[in-house]
Amino acid sequence: MAEQIRSLPQGEERDRADSALRVYAATLLAMRSNQVMGCALGLHPGQAGETPAMSTLVVSKMSVPSGGAKAALTGLIPASAGASPGEGARPVELPCGLGFVTEREQRTASPKQDPETQAFQEMPVWQGTVAIPDSRSSTVYFVQLVTAETEQTDAYRDVLLGVARTVTFTAPEADTAASPPYLAPEDGDVRNIFG
Fold first, then answer.
1. Which of 31, 78, 158, 195 has its CA 20 to 30 A from that of 119?
2. Which residue ranges make up each domain of the chain?
3. What is the pLDDT, as a whole number, of residue 144?
4. DSSP assignments along 65-79, one per residue
5. What is the DSSP letter of 48?
6. What is the dihedral of CA 34, 40, 46, 51, to 10 degrees?
7. Are 102 and 80 spatial neighbours (Cβ–Cβ below 8 Å)?
8. What Å distances lie between residue 189 and 105, 128, 129, 138, CA to CA?
9. Cβ(99)–Cβ(76) below 8 Å
């Protein structure tokens, strides 16, 4: 892919492709260094011809010492609690047990470079995380959603919690001969869960 980008003529198209490849490479390296189980990139249409909005949803896990996942969370949560209004950890009931939600706004490097310095510019992002301890093991699972659409945090928070509510620690039924009956969602159910 890098060779294909280098073969493009100098100009805006090549710069955009190079920027996208850099973000992709940095993302893959970050995922590899953490125990990422899955990642979904959201591209949402902008309003009235605006640039499309982007979001990233990541599911990862962290193995903790033998004291158990809940004990490890008590060590992790105070470090982030009470940093500012709207930040910190708060409990949330999930079908798989008790989870903890944290959210914050921060500045991070954007894929755009400053034309004069060639340094990556910064942009504000909202980051929401649900930490879910597996009480049967020493693993904590994380569902994290990040977006630059900081004015839409309520909608993204709903999406984050909707995804976290799908987490389960039970294995699917081994007997697939009799499938459970399909229950169609009522009007508005999916929309309400996912914003």
1. 31
2. 1-33, 38-168
3. 94
4. -TT-HHHHHHHHHHH
5. G
6. 50
7. yes
8. 29, 22, 23, 34
9. no
Residue type for position 104: R
Q: Which two tokens stand for residue 14?
A: 């090549």
- Domain 38-168 matching CATH 3.40.50: the answer reads no
DSSP 143-189: EEEEES-GGGHHHHHHHHHHHHTT---SPPPS--SSPPPP-PPPTTH
Q: Are 139 and 67 in contact (CB under 8 A)?
A: no
Residues 6+ apart with CB under 8 A from 114: 120, 121
Question: Which residues contact residue 113 at a Cβ distance below 8 angstroms, ignoring those fewer than 6 apart?
Answer: 15, 19, 119, 120, 121
Distances (CA, A) of 128 to 53, 101, 104, 148, 191: 17, 7, 7, 12, 19
Can you give the pLDDT at residue 149?
87
Retrieve residue 41's tokens. 């990139």
Residue type, 130: V
**Which residues of the chain are modeled with pLDDT < 50?**
78-85, 174, 179, 182, 184-185, 189-195
Threshold 0.85, pTM exceeds: no
Enclosing H/E stretch for 132: strand 120-134
